[in-house]
Design brief:
elongated, HU Protein, Chain A, disordered N terminus, about 35% helix, about 25% strand, two-stranded antiparallel ribbon
Length: about 130
Amino acid sequence: MSVSHEPSPWPRSLDIAELTTEKPSRTLTRSDIAAAINKRVPKLSQREAGRMLDFVLQEIASALSQGEEYVKLHEFGTFFVRERAARRGRIPLADESAAIWRRKTLNFRPSVGLKEKVEKSPARGRRPRL
């Protein structure tokens, strides 16, 4: 049995802002991530990269919906489901109160390393901290 020691096509740190060709924006879309995957792994077509991304997101959602407490991606962050309590809200246009039912929401907690990379990146349109 032989083990290939070729370098991995996946980078240690994936700088998506550097890989996307569009002008900088405040929103990162699925197509931006698929384009970044395609640039790092040219053997994959844009469509295959998009399918791979969709598959990964479906696996995360499936694991959480089947009762897993959390899904942790090393050096990226943790996805988890949180139970939101029922509460009273209001409809601003009608100026009346409304019931907001109890529900589950998907939350994400970034890793320390991801937070540091975001803090070191150039602030595009961000206000300085006071």
